[in-house]
Design goal:
Elements: E1 5-6, H1 8-19, E2 26-32, H2 51-59, E3 61-63, E4 66-67, H3 73-82, H4 86-89, H5 105-111, E5 115-120, E6 133-137, E7 147-150, E8 153-156, H6 161-176, E9 183-188, H7 225-229, H8 257-264, H9 269-289, H10 293-329, E10 335-341, H11 360-363, E11 367-370, E12 381-383, E13 387-388, H12 392-400, H13 414-417, E14 422-423, E15 428-433, E16 445-450, E17 453-458, E18 465-470, H14 488-504
Parallel strand pairs: 2-9, 2-10, 3-12, 4-13, 5-6, 5-9
Antiparallel strand pairs: 1-14, 3-11, 6-7, 7-8, 10-11, 15-16, 16-17, 17-18
């Protein structure tokens, strides 16, 4: 795609604004792992209210068409850091090691005089680079008493991971950073990643709720071979009775049971008592009902959603702590706050949990940004242009007044946030997924999405299929119209657009 062109007037205004800055803005980049847009009340309030995260949207900008380039944790994070697609930054799967010698936005900010820090989840195998301060979780991290990697080695921090990561972040803001420099702080949470273990302070939440089943929960995947071959069904063994649903009983033997046993060993005696009070009751209910078939599938869905939402509640509480500190300290007047997730997540749609697919629930991700509260700036702005996580790096650099490098494939969307008319903004986005064979058995695929249609190619191993969706008529993506003659011209146009994007992004493999 051509880089968007600002009008001459807008360019002059931006240059003038930059020259008049007395101090460069600080940046707080909060990211969760697997937070679905369906469970953030700025987007959808069917499941939970998230008043603190919503504050960012009310005081800033909500993006309604925000997408990822590769819907899986490590590769998605690499795309954000580098501003490049997976085939360019080299991290195509979670099994890959991120090459941390390449250029990233924290490195460029650091070279430009910013103090940089990352606290929380890293998940890129290599050591963080470009940060003055880093304290990152080991791998996926533990929910309780998490172990952190620091330059000197490893240290265990007592408490619940979401609280601990926020404690460490606030301590850095208050006591450790160089206050003579602008800063960029990455607060990257483990939550609400599988297996959705809540803070025991929230362990009773949602227990009396019954959540409505998604309309596609019993999807039969007709006309979608790749969808039928996945292994991420709530109804199937893929959602583990012990590890995922916390059924800790000698008579329940599952593939991942030892993972639950190991995790529970990290609880202290007080937390263990709270845990047992709730989950012993859940176990009793399970053993009493002895549900099978659809009744069991729907029971599992309710347990999954409740535990997931308990984790979101902790995230929302801790986002509130950060926002409150920024306001109390006066930092909010010159601090950009970003909230996003590394990808979306299935909340039972198509009968699934997890992500990976180019379908909307996985492909789409929340993105809320509050620019500094000054100069009479208004909040509650909605941007419906299509943005992608390869755009984060150039946007953050643009906010800081630092030039992006040419190798970055994303584009700054700062002008969109500022309400400027941008000529040549993208009308379609490109997606890749490489991780197969692997957990959940989602086949490799790539595709293109525009404002109305989506074209996907699944390839390799046992599948070589095309799927086409009319997102206006089929918002749930259950009707593959690729072979429907009524869509012949749409199909041809999207094939051309897909090829154009593959050439543009130099993806020729």
């Amino acid at each position: 795609m051509k880089r968007p062109i600002l009008s001459v007037a807008a360019t002059l205004i931006c240059s003038a604004a930059l020259s008049q800055k007395t101090s460069r803005p600080n940046i707080v980049f909060i990211m969760t792992d697997d937070h679905s847009y369906q469970t953030l009340s700025s987007y959808d309030n069917r499941f939970i209210e998230t008043p603190n995260i919503d504050r960012i949207a009310k005081e800033g900008v909500k993006f309604t068409n925000s997408f990822v380039a590769n819907s899986i944790s490590g590769p998605s994070r690499a795309c954000m850091l580098t501003g490049k697609f997976s085939h360019k930054n080299g991290m195509t799967t979670n099994a890959t090691r991120f090459d941390s010698t390449q250029i990233t936005f924290p490195k460029l900010l650091n070279s430009a005089g910013y103090e940089t820090a990352i606290i929380g989840k890293w998940h890129l195998k290599s050591e963080p680079a470009g940060f003055d301060k880093w304290e990152v979780l080991v791998g996926q991290g533990h929910y309780y008493n998490p172990i952190f990697i620091v330059p000197e080695g490893r240290v265990t921090r007592e408490g619940y991971s979401t609280n601990v990561i926020t404690d460490l972040s606030l301590n850095w803001l208050k006591n450790e950073r160089d206050t003579t420099k602008p800063f960029c702080l990455l607060i990257h949470h483990k939550a609400p990643h599988r297996n959705w273990m809540p803070d025991t302070a929230h362990i009773d939440l949602f227990e009396d709720r019954v959540f409505e089943l998604p309309s596609t929960f019993y999807d039969d995947y007709r006309g979608r071979k790749a969808a039928s071959l996945q292994e991420m069904r709530i109804a199937g063994d893929e959602m583990d009775l012990a590890f995922d649903l916390k059924l800790n009983s000698p008579e329940i033997k599952t593939r991942l049971k030892e993972n639950l046993t190991f995790a529970l060993r990290r609880l202290d005696s007080s937390s263990t008592a709270s845990w047992n009070r709730v989950y012993d009751s859940v176990l009793c209910d399970f053993l009493t009902k002895r549900a099978v078939g659809r009744e069991l599938a729907e029971w599992k869905y309710q347990r999954y959603i409740k535990d997931y939402l308990k984790c979101i509640k902790s995230v929302d509480d801790n986002v509130g702590r950060v926002l409150d500190y920024l306001k109390e300290s006066g930092l909010d007047s010159n601090t950009v706050v970003i909230y996003t997730s590394d990808q979306g997540f299935f909340m039972g749609e198509h009968g699934w949990f997890d992500k990976r697919f180019m379908y909307e629930e996985s492909f789409r991700t929340p993105l809320l940004i509050r620019l500094p509260l000054k100069d009479g700036r208004r909040g509650g702005v909605v941007v419906d242009k299509m943005v992608q996580n390869i755009d984060y790096a150039p946007t953050i650099l643009d906010i800081a007044g630092v030039e992006a490098v040419k190798e970055m494939q994303g584009v700054s969307f700062l002008p969109l946030m500022e309400g400027k008319r941008v000529r040549g903004w993208r009308e379609s986005i490109y997606y890749q997924f490489f991780e197969f064979p692997a957990e959940h058995s989602v086949r490799k695929h790539y595709g293109v999405r525009d404002k109305r249609y989506k074209l996907i190619r699944f390839y390799g191993h046992d599948v070589n299929e095309w799927e086409l969706y009319d997102l206006k008529k089929d918002t749930l993506e259950i009707s593959n119209v690729y072979n429907n003659s009524a869509y012949r011209s749409v199909r041809k146009r999207l094939h051309r657009e897909l090829e154009r994007l593959r050439v543009l992004y130099e993806d020729r493999d």
